[in-house]
What does this fold into?
Amino acid sequence: MLRSMAVRLTNPGEYEAAGASRRRHGRVLCDGVSFQAGKRSGFVVDLSASGARVSVRGDGAEAGEVLEGVLSTGEDEMKVKARVVWCRDDGGRKCLGLEFVELTDELKRDLMNLLRTAMAQHTIGKGA
It folds into this structure.
């Protein structure tokens, strides 16, 4: 079961060292969006209209590899194809930088709906 999700827009200068200046779209940090691609399962760290950063258990992936996966908020679910841009070890997990490929107009609408759901489920904190 997915836990409640917290999201926030990233600070424009926050990820400059990670190559943010090359990104085509802004990112939304996510908590509670799951990712599944074959034996790789985990969660979305951040999401944009053109890609995602995901943390997965299991084997990493090679740059250039294309994964067929599922993004899910618990309310919305969508199948995506994504090219692995990079893979890093992240304390026993693998962190993957993904670029969505073969996005049809329908998939773009579904992705925008998933992003809206992520934004609508934004939480400020337990005390709010």
